[in-house]
Amino acid sequence: MAKLWGGRFRKSTDKKVDDFNSSIRFDKRMYEQDIRGSIAHATMLGKQGIIPQEDADKIVDELKRILADIKEGKVEFLIDAEDIHMNIEKILTDRIGDAGKRLHTGRSRNDQVALDIRMYLMDETAEIEEILAETMSTFVELAKKHTDTIMPGYTHLQKAQPITFAHHCMAYFEMFKRDYLRLKDCRRRTNVMPLGSGALAGTTYPLDRQMVADMLGFDGITMNSLDGVSDRDFVIELANCLAIVMMHASRFSEELILWSSNEFGFVEMDDAYSTGSSIMPQKKNPDVAELIRGKAGRVYGNLMSLLTMMKGLPLAYNKDMQEDKEPIFDSIDTVKLCLPVFCDMVRTMKVNTDVMYKGANGGFTNATDAADYLVKKGLPFRDAHAVIGNMVYYCIEHNKAIDDLTMDEMKSFSDIIEDDIYKAVSMETCVNDRDVIGGPAKKMTEKAIRKAEQFIDSIDTED
């Protein structure tokens, strides 16, 4: 097949080079964005008198037919045509002849691909934002059911202080909320139109770039032609945002893997989101959670690929930049694959509230509250810390919990201790007295849930 750019060449491209050079295998997914961009470009060319209006109209009409044919599976893309841009242009030219050859007036594949990838990523990012809204809702709904479910909070994976499972769930709401806001912000920076940058130095044709931007729904246009064709910050930024999304999903997945083990027993995964062993009949494996945890590493790798690919490129466009698409496409696909099943896994798991409470009641999670009790009686905190530290050591030696100690045993550590200490170190008091903003007390958690629901409702209003 004759190359559309082949006039300068006197020798055919080697077949292996055609295969190596071609990107149609993966960039064909941008066909709709490519055609939308070409329709806007052709419309502008006609309006500006750069090409005959009759040719512009033919181009636009046929591009619409090509789009419909692709959606109906009637078009076969060719590796020899290299990429989605040249494939569409070849199909157009084959169908309408010389008029189709005018489409590429005033643009380069360099600014064309920059346009397509921006449009494609904005469309995909909007879809992921919707999935994240559903993810946030999943954790809010779970929290609403467990405002009274007391569990141990951890630092260093050691029991630290009692919290509620609702408070734990709302921590993940905050994470996914930040993910949602990051994606919206990333989409804002992606929403700048590069078409008109040409190969690197713009064009001598009187293009109306603002018209094209308005037709395609861009908020603005790029202000430097070199940057317009060579910027891939928005790809890297999205890859980073998606890596953080997967990090958050992986963290909760790791907790579910631990909590569903016999050693914890805090949750039981639904049968529909677990698998068995080919040899051990008793096994119920949290494979969904493990796969999400594993796929997080894959998305991290895509981010590193993009950063490494871009780090040494001089201005402006270089063929290396063809390698931006597969990593970001894979990251998008992975997140869109993982989050819906992640939400279903979380919704269907059984929470063993009694086991969580028992876990909170052991491990001296109320030790800090015992020290605070002494502080409120007038003892300096450092002295109170030492008193309760000695008390904990005594409890370990005698296999007791703090609230198992008799009053005589209590007073052997400090004579300011009274009977009211037992209420002060109860799990319920330890949780509900922590009623500062952001704390685990039931009333504060319920307030956080209401604010979260308002935030999610505001997303629905925007849409």
Strand order across the biggest sheet? 1-2
Largest sheet: 2 strands, antiparallel
- Write the element-wise H/E pattern from the N-terminal end onward: HHHHHHHEEHEHEHHEHHEHHHHHHH
The fraction of residues in strands falls at under 5%
Under CATH at level 1, the class of the largest domain stands as Mainly Alpha
Count of runs of 4 or more consecutive helical residues: 20
In which range does the helix fraction lie?
55-70%
Q: Return Rg in Å.
A: 30 Å
Q: Identify the CATH architecture of the largest domain.
A: Up-down Bundle
Q: What is the CATH homology-level superfamily of the largest domain?
A: Fumarase/aspartase (Central domain)
pLDDT below 50 for ≥5 consecutive residues: which ranges? Answer: none
Q: Based on helices, strands and strand pairing, what is the structural class?
A: mainly alpha
Number of domains: 3
| CATH fold-level name of the largest domain | Fumarase C, Chain A, domain 2
Outline: elongated
Mean pLDDT: 94
